[in-house]
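Objective 1b of the project was to move from sequence-level analysis to a structural picture of ligand recognition. The entry below was assembled by the postdoctoral researcher (A.K.) and checked by the PI before modelling. It contains the amino acid sequence of the target and the SMILES of the bound compound, adenosine-5'-diphosphate.
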Amino acid sequence: MESKKTLAQSETEKPDKGNASVIVDAAGIKKYYTMGNSFAGKRNKTLKAVNGVSLRVHEGEIFGVVGESGCGKSTLGRALLRLFPLTEGRLLFEGKDLSSLGRRELKPYRPRMQMVFQNPYSSFDQRQRLGDALAEAGKVCGLSRENTDARIKELMEVIRLPDEMLERRPQELSGGQLQRLAFARALLPAPRFIVADEPVSALDVSVQAQILNLIIDLKKQMKLTMLFISHEMTVVEHICDTIGVMYLGEIVETAPAGELFSHPAHPYTQALLSSIPKTHPDEEKERIVLSGELPSAIDLPKGCAFAGRCRYATAVCREKKPEAVKISPGHHAACHLYQAG
Ligand SMILES: Nc1ncnc2c1ncn2[C@@H]1O[C@H](COP(=O)(O)OP(=O)(O)O)[C@@H](O)[C@H]1O
Ligand SMILES: [Mg+2]
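Corresponding predicted holo structure:
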């Protein structure tokens, strides 16, 4: 047995989270999909969408998950909300083990774990007035009509939209306005945890900033705890406390946001950061070009998932999967460059 600490174990030493309680504690989460069918003698293939992710989200923390399209971010977000059965792993929500609960047993937890999606137009019923959509969401979460109405009024102030917007239907609002209402709907039952899956990716850049500012406000006002998913490094930089970089179903590096940007350890993180345009013409920046495309999550290589595109890869990388090791407090990377011995 190796003496190196796994990510899940070493996270308990985190010095920078104070006494903030852990809201989501995930260890070794896997979600596999079986592809094709065994009909005509063909062997089923396994797509490893999420392949052993461990992370902790503390109260009041925004945990960013960033990585290329198809790396498993949405599947991870949904897994943490237990929207489907897990292939493997342990998921604690506020200390309760949700890993193997059935649909009925999960029901009481649903209002406390909410989701906001990328496209606000497809997450609302086009025919429904927005006031009715919010009222319905309150009802589903078991709130009384009076409580729902009071809460909607309160939230309209928080998201800074006039009450008359509630009379309108989705297509009568801009993308930014509708995404604000999507946040209001998610916040209605006062959830303890929100997964926001690329909530600004479908919006214009100017509107993106408004929504990111709203999230920062929400965090300050209500101690919001959130998993914030994005495929863009620049989007996670300013609003996330901690960032997890995902590659082919795994989190290859986790660090406080500032630390990740100033001292990226994993070659994949370094490549992602090098592709961000310079902010100053004199800034020295080497652009690391990633060769090839994100490989398929079917028939993954046995060593490091990034080895095929990594400029530092050696024989050991193709043979053995690297474990997450501690780089500095709260900073971990799964890369053979940092494995002792
Ligand atoms: N329901 C599903 N059935 C089969 N494969 C899926 C399913 N959902 C996602 N996948 C696959 O899992 C991988 C990760 O997908 P996803 O989590 O959507 O990535 P991301 O959000 O990072 O773009 C992709 O290869 C995708 O095709
Ligand atoms: Mg996605």
